[in-house]
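Troubleshooting log. The previous structure file for this entry was overwritten by mistake, so regenerating from the original sequence record. Sequence copied from the archived sheet and checked twice against the printout by T.R.
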Amino acid sequence: MSDLLPIFPLPSVVLFPGVFLPLHIFEPRYRDMVADALSTDRMIGMALLKEGWESDYEGRPPVYAVGCSGLITHAEHLPDGRYNIILRGLDRFRILHEDHARAYRRALTEPLHEPTLSSADKIMLKGQRARIESLLSPSGQSAGIDPRAAAALADDDLINALAQYLDLDAIEKQALLEKPSIPDRAGALIELLEMRSMLARTPSSSSAQAH
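Regenerated output below.
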């Protein structure tokens, strides 16, 4: 098998390191992709499609260069050829070049390793986690994560899980994925949540005029 990573482009899904993602695979080209991955290293790279992908979905519409690789931890091959799989996010990557030899997309990528956190970074991250939790509490948002499970997650795992599962726009999630470190990602997530909290407290112009 070559060093090319199979790429699965989707318009609204962003995968983060350490987070699980269930997927239903039904297109023939991506069934082939899963079959090939299962016969080798079980690796697939998730990439977000750029705006305007609808006009060329059957082809190879542009994707954002930064994505996240995932390991297929579970695969169910259905009688009609479809698959239900679960990916566990591994490492962020940058696409350097795409190969067009197969029906599905493959790419030469470079890993984007997140830096090891210093003691000061870890202290800052704990503060960021507390701020995020305080922002989520009033709205009752939990991103579908059980509070007890969330409490057991390490700081970096929780930040990535929230980045993936919170009700954010895909482009916002992509921007979070592209942050070079967990503290950077946590800071950006705080900014997004603070802005949403502010907008929720601000009456709309129509409501203001009605009063």
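The longest helix spans residues 119-139. Archived copy saved in two places this time.
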